[in-house]
Design a protein that fits this description.
Number of helices: 7
CATH topology: Rossmann fold
Number of strands: 7
Helix content: 25-40%
Order of helices and strands: HHEHEHEEHEHHEE
Largest sheet: 7 strands, mixed
CATH superfamily: Vaccinia Virus protein VP39
Distance between the termini: 36 Å
CATH architecture: 3-Layer(aba) Sandwich
Radius of gyration: 16 Å
Strand content: 15-25%
Number of domains: 1
Shape: globular
Length: about 210
């Protein structure tokens, strides 16, 4: 199985050119996310891809710090921020474990379409908790494929062997919520955008 940063580096340009598949679900996710943001917020997004979501949300907050393990993704995101003349975003290669990210520095941490790609998801969520200020919010959306199809559990290992797919965790929505609450969060909102297979949107408050 390829390292995640190498996998996404090779696919960054095509990823950037690919249109959003489900615009309605994306817009629902953005609307619900914006409902929890304020102009005074310092925000972190992890696993930003080419930065489209961070740039879309930048006008709703004071500042967004953004991390992705793919340097090519970050290069594209920086170009887009400059091209769109958006100055309150800081894109850098790295992960949630970046030493430059100070504990209790953020009002909100976001992770969209990321958690199921992490080999040690509990540790990452524990780190998110540490980065948040008291009462801060963790906003995420995660595809939950467990029990949805018999095809992927068979096909995915073959694709990984051929270096055509990264690590993927098969989760149920209940399992996902359980991992988040076990790491010191109270879930205050959920939704599925889309409903099938569920991309589970969660807003969780640091307890």
């Amino acid at each position: 199985m390829p390292k995640s940063e190498n996998f996404w580096d090779k696919r960054a340009k095509k990823y950037a050119e690919r249109p959003i598949k489900d615009v309605q679900s994306y817009n629902q996710t953005m609307a619900r996310t914006k409902a929890h943001l304020s102009k005074d917020d310092s925000v972190l997004e992890i696993g930003c891809g080419t930065g489209s979501t961070a740039l879309l949300l930048a006008g709703s907050v004071q500042h967004i710090s953004v991390r992705d393990t793919s340097g090519t993704m970050i290069d594209i995101a920086n170009f887009k921020a400059k091209d769109q003349k958006i100055g309150n975003t800081t894109f850098a290669r790295g992960s949630v474990f970046d030493d430059a990210l100070g504990e209790q520095s953020f009002n909100v941490v976001m992770a969209f379409n990321l958690l199921h790609l992490l080999e040690d998801m509990p540790s990452a969520i524990r780190r998110v908790n540490a980065l948040l200020k008291p009462g801060g919010l963790f906003i995420s959306k995660t595809v939950c494929m467990a029990g949805q199809s018999w095809v992927w559990p068979i096909a995915l290992p073959i694709m990984q062997f051929l270096r055509l797919a990264p690590f993927v965790r098969f989760l149920t929505t209940d399992e996902l919520e359980g991992i988040i609450t076990n790491e010191g969060f109270e879930i205050i909102e959920t939704g599925n955008y889309p409903a099938s297979p569920p991309s589970h949107f969660i807003v969780a408050r640091k307890t």
